[in-house]
Specification:
Blueprint (H helix, E strand, L loop, with lengths): L15 H22 L6 H14 L21 H17 L14
């Protein structure tokens, strides 16, 4: 997805908010490093400017901000809800047209 991600996570220590915090910290550093070090990144200046601008608007960030601070966690309390969310995650890119579901293709002879 171009503006967000979906994932299902379980924390072995019962603190999913800490797991999410660490995930966001690690991935934001690595993505920004990759952008900074890639001489072929055509949007490098703009991307870094946007991350720095977002960081300046946030009291929780000292430099740049890659991830938004709010999350929309959903507790998966039953097998039915887990299946529903997995189906949603798998089909979301299909619904917005990023990928094609080959099961929907019609072949004619």
């Amino acid at each position: 997805m171009p503006s967000h991600i979906h994932f299902i996570v379980r924390s072995s220590i019962g603190q999913p908010s800490e797991l999410l915090r660490d995930f966001k910290r690690h991935t934001s550093k690595r993505v920004i490093e990759a952008i900074e070090s890639n001489p072929q990144e055509s949007l490098k200046k703009w991307l870094l400017w946007m991350f720095n601008r977002a960081g300046k608007k946030s009291a929780a960030t000292s430099k740049s901000q890659f991830w938004q601070h709010h999350n929309k966690p959903i507790e998966l309390w039953s097998e039915k809800v887990i299946k529903q969310k997995i189906d949603y995650i798998h089909n979301n890119p299909v619904w917005i047209g990023f990928v094609v579901n080959t099961e929907d293709w019609k072949y004619s002879s």
